[in-house]
Amino acid sequence: MNSFAKAQALRASKGHRRISALTAYDYPSARLLDEAGIDLLLVGDSLGMVVLGFPDTTHVTLEHMLHHTAAVARAQPRALVLGDMPIHTYNTPAQAIASAQALIKAGADAVKLEGGSEHAATIRAITTAGIPVIGHIGMLPQHVIEEGGYHKKGKTPAALQQLLIDAEALTEAGVCAIVMESIIPSSATAITKSVPVPTIGIGCGETTCDGEVAVITDLLGSYPWFVPPFAKPEAQLAPQIIAAARAYHHRVITTKM
Ligand code: KIV
Questions:
Q1: Residue 253 domain-assigned (yes or no)
Q2: How many domains does the chain have?
């Protein structure tokens, strides 16, 4: 399926089938997650923390994203590959189109950017250039410094109203889905009901969105230094990696030459 068909199928899934999405940052994980049947592989700028060791996503550059998007795309996944647009790469519509085109050239099927109505014109410019876009509202990690941390969103009627306005603006700008992050469950449900495109939640509750996205290291328990409260690990790889490395170390140093 080509990128456009994958994006159309994603949009059309609303009301029929929930969407499973995971972050992927490299070739082997993309191959394994695709084999598992995951619908969408997000090359998220969360790689800034869980792969590159930065304190937050504000250090991620377009070059980082192109490098990792290309690695994921080399797996030739059946899943839709979504390339995250890092901070300061979509400050103007022209810059956004150039950044999005670079991600598509690296192998993404679609791009994602953070923000609401204030970015509607930029999103419209990208979709008009023929590139599928997924929006991202609620907690916006690229704003974590101004916001002083990761806080829940949509907690008041006014906050919900703004999120509804944002979701509608993104839909009118042509997004094929909307990622919603850390929005309280009642507000996430209201937004999901209000838009014709699928919502993909993280930290919004399990039954509030048309799909879910998780950061792969949270699912695998392979990044123990920061685990978000909403993470639901299905494995604990960190102790297994340490144990395997210890066993190897012991074997190497005790082997007689
Ligand atoms: O970069 C990322 O992993 C994301 C998810 C938190 C949705 O944007």
A1: no
A2: 1
Give the containing element (helix H, strand E) for 137.
Answer: strand 133-138
pTM of the model: 0.97
Q: What is the CATH number of the domain that holds 152?
A: 3.20.20.60
**Tokens representing residue 194 in the block:** 């209000």
- For residue 23 and ligand 1, the question of a CB distance below 6 A is answered with yes
Q: Which pLDDT belongs to residue 1? A: 87
What would the two tokens of residue 75 be? 């797996």
Ligand 1 near 197 CB (within 6 A): no
- Determine which residue's CA is closest to atom 8 belonging to ligand 1: 44
Rounded distance, CA 254 to CA 62, Å? 45
pLDDT tens by residue, 158-200: 999 999 999 999 999 999 999 999 999 999 999 999 999 999 9
Dump pLDDT digits (tens) for 216-255.
Answer: 999 999 999 999 999 999 999 999 999 999 999 999 999 9
Closest protein CA for atom 4 of ligand 1: 44
Tokens representing residue 30 in the block: 């993309």
Q: Is residue 221 part of a domain?
A: no
Could you tell me if residue 243 is inside a domain? Answer: no
Q: Ligand 1 pocket, 199 CB below 6 A?
A: no
How far does the centroid of ligand 1 lie from the alpha carbon of residue 221, in Å? 17
- Domain around 13: 3-214
Assigned domain for 225 exists: no
Q: What DSSP state is assigned to residue 257?
A: -
- Asked if residue 218 has its Cβ within 6 Å of ligand 1, the reply is no
